[in-house]
Write a structure and sequence with these properties.
A hairpin with a 4-residue loop joins strand 15 and strand 16. The chain folds into three domains: about 140 residues, no CATH class; about 60 residues; about 50 residues, SH3 type barrels, CATH 2.30.30. With about 280 residues, it is mainly β.
Length: about 280
């Protein structure tokens, strides 16, 4: 009896396997994919969520073996030799020759997934596009027989900016350590520019308290006096022929980019140079 039960269970397992039922190509138009849009059958909620995340984060020509390894499902059945995953965002930038910081995403009234055959040719058009919100893309899907189907996709074009945000709250008049920031992409436009190079943080301190998660704007920072009057600093003397590194005594304190007077005690000579780094002044001869 136990042997018979084991035999029945063994052959009934595949019936409960998570199965992909769609075509071998998927165009992902947005990150917000509804569960009912997934071309899956017999999958648990956890498996559905894993497959959804894979579609959003993976792109390319993925073999059935590779997909099985990525998903890690027991008895997952693709029903295809491979799966081609393409994002609308990347395809639009390539075919419409958009800048890399332009992000394209389908609106709520458009499908998140569009299936196609791997041998189909996909073409995108945007007639009269203003490249803003609520624009209409026309997708042409041409099959191997030369027949073309047309689909309309309502999308938003967003210009993204690279910015940095603080991970933890930062007090006013303090330096922001490099391990307390992370890079993000944002479409918010500040009244002043965002911090562009985190390496420059060593030249600045906050002029107000920053909350955790807040984007760092240049208006939030004030330059620190990285040259101190009377403190021995490196002095770089340079013209088009020579470059000499020596030391001098600044007569005044200065911030990055500011010009200060530096006295060279050995030569008993004054130089007027630009602050380029902590305790470092450059002089054009």
């Amino acid at each position: 009896m136990k042997l018979l039960l084991s035999f029945v269970l063994l052959f009934s397992l595949p019936a409960f396997a998570c199965e992909y039922t769609g075509l071998d190509g998927i165009l992902v138009t947005k990150k917000d994919i509804k569960t009912e849009e997934l071309p899956l059958k017999g999958c648990s909620p956890e498996e559905q969520e894993m497959f959804k995340n894979t579609l959003v984060n993976l792109e390319g020509n993925i073999s059935a073996f590779q997909l099985n390894e990525i998903l890690g499902f027991a008895n997952f059945k693709l029903n295809q030799d491979r799966l081609i995953i393409t994002s609308l965002n990347k395809m639009t930038r390539q075919q419409l020759a958009l800048k890399d910081n332009i992000h394209v995403s389908a609106r709520n009234n458009s499908p998140a997934l569009i299936s196609f055959q791997s041998h189909d040719h996909l073409s995108l058009f945007c007639n009269g596009c203003l490249y803003g919100e609520n624009q209409t893309l026309t997708l042409h899907v041409k099959n191997i027989l030369g027949e073309t189907a047309q689909k309309l996709i309502n999308v938003d074009f967003r210009t993204l900016f690279t910015a940095y945000r603080v991970l933890g709250a930062t007090a006013a008049f303090a330096q922001i350590p490099s391990d307390n920031i992370e890079v993000v992409q944002t479409d918010s436009i500040p009244h002043t520019s965002f911090l562009e190079d985190p390496a420059h943080l060593k030249f600045y301190q906050t002029n107000k308290a920053l909350k955790a998660g807040e984007l760092i704007k240049m208006s939030d920072l004030s330059p620190s006096r990285i040259i101190k009057a009377g403190i021995r600093s490196e002095l770089i003397l340079e013209n088009k022929f020579i470059k000499i590194k020596t030391h001098g005594i600044p007569r005044s304190s200065g911030v990055i980019g500011e010009f200060v007077e530096v006295y060279h005690p050995e030569k008993k000579k004054k130089y007027y140079g630009k602050v380029i780094d902590i305790n470092k002044v450059h002089v054009d001869l």
